Predict the 3D structure of the following.
Amino acid sequence: MRPPSPSIPEKEFLNTALKQNLRLDGRSPLEMRKTTLVFGPELGWVECSLGKTRVVANVEAKMVKPTPERPFEGIITIHSEISPMASSEYEPGRPSDEEVTITRMLDKVIKRSDAVDKESLCILAGQRVWHIRLTLHFLADAGNMLDCACLAGIVALRHFRRPEVEVIGDDEVIVHSPLERAPMPLAIHHSPFCFTFAFFSDPETPPILDPSQLEQRLSAGAMSIALNAQKEICVLQKLGGVPQRTEEILRLVKVAVDQAKELSNEVDVRLAADWDTRHVEVR
């Protein structure tokens, strides 16, 4: 069941505030909400919060037979589920348009950009490879779930450790427990982060970064930019909406680059702090 549309006073109040470069939560137009990362007891379990938007990411690995088309590469799959727990407008068993958009965007950002080295997941060519499964659960929708899900996914992949394996002969594979050998991190090429900008039909209203739920509903278009701290753009997606000039797009890309650098440093610090608290068997 979709919630009622914002009232006319809400629309007028929000539009008037945005024209004055003010937002309802006190942020500036190009300021993100506070990011919070909580790591679980198991490696690969991360809860990411972007303001009041919350997403849980979990990574699992198992050995499978590779596909005939790519016998030297591992397999990465991404599963997402938006339940009524996140918002009353979502229904169980029926994927919403937003869920489909988020899943496709995550597929482009994480899989197609080669964030994870798939060849490093190969154990025995044509016989055994690692299948990495990334599962995302959306707990609360306060706007901009895409950016929160992308951050949770890439942090969970970097936090995850797979078991160490040993190949004996041509077909024997031994999987060592963490008590015998230290688990191995995934080979991460780069860490892409997603940033979403919302546009409004009034030309006097500036674009805003990380829209809230109300801002997202009242916007006339959005653009998502996925890039890493090395200024490499992985995906730039704008699904219709208000047309923008090239100069404006380039200005927002520069804003996203600065945000990616800050977010990358913050993620590195949080991962290092969590790793220092864990006791892992060292060979």
The longest strand covers residues 128-140. The radius of gyration is 21 Å. The chain has five helices and 14 strands. The helical segments are 8-19, 97-112, 145-159, 213-218, 246-276.
